[in-house]
Amino acid sequence: MIKVYAISTGKIKKLPYSKKKTMRSALDKSPFKGQMWLSKLGFIEDEQAYEGHGGPHKAVCCFSKSNYTMYKDELSELPDYAMFGENLTVEHLDESNVYFGNQYQLGEAIIEVSEIREPCWKIQAKYDIPNLIKRMSQSGKTGFYFRVIKEGYVNDNDNLELIKKADNTTLLSVQDLNELYYNDRKNLKQINYALQNPYLSPSRLEQLHKMKARVETE
In what residue span(s) does the MOSC domain sit (predicted)? Predict the structure, then answer.
C-alpha cells in the first residue's frame, strides 16, 4: 500500500500570483471530503485551464510530498498538500521506481502511469522561485500522470495499491523519461528504447519521433 496524504481537486479561477499577465488556473486545489467519481477524464469536480493539461492520458496528477523538501530553503513554510496542483499527494513514490504501465487501485478505480509532468510557468510564479522549473525538470522529480483504466468512486481516505506491474521487456521509469526529455535529448539509443514502450501517450510518442528525427539529421 502507498499512503495517500491528500486527494485534491480545484476549479479554474483568476489567481493573483503573476504581475505580468493574467493567470487563470485550477492550480490551487483542496482535498475533498467524502467520495468523488473518477472518470476517464479525471475527478468529476476537477478542472484544467487549457488543453495541455488534463485529457485521458493526463487524468490524474500525482506528486510525492517527500519532494516538497527540495524547496524548503526558499519557502518559509511548505504546503501540506497539492503544492504543485497535483490531485494525489502521496507520502512517497520515487520517480525512479514508478514505471509507465504500472496499474494501481484507488478506491473503485484502476489507474495506470501514462505521462511525465511538464512543469509550467504558473507554479514558478506562484512560489516566486526563479529557477523552479529548471530545478524540477533537471532533477526528474516532476511528478507524473495516470490514465484511468476503470472508472469508479474514490473516497477521501483511499490509498494506492499496486495491482499490476509494467512489462519488464520495455520497462521505462518516469525518471528515465525525464532524464531523456530534459537532460539527454540526443541519446538516440534511449529514444529508440522509449519508442518501444506501449504505455506512453500518443503525444509523447510523437515528441519522441521528432526528437529522433532531429538527432538523425544532425
Answer: 30-163
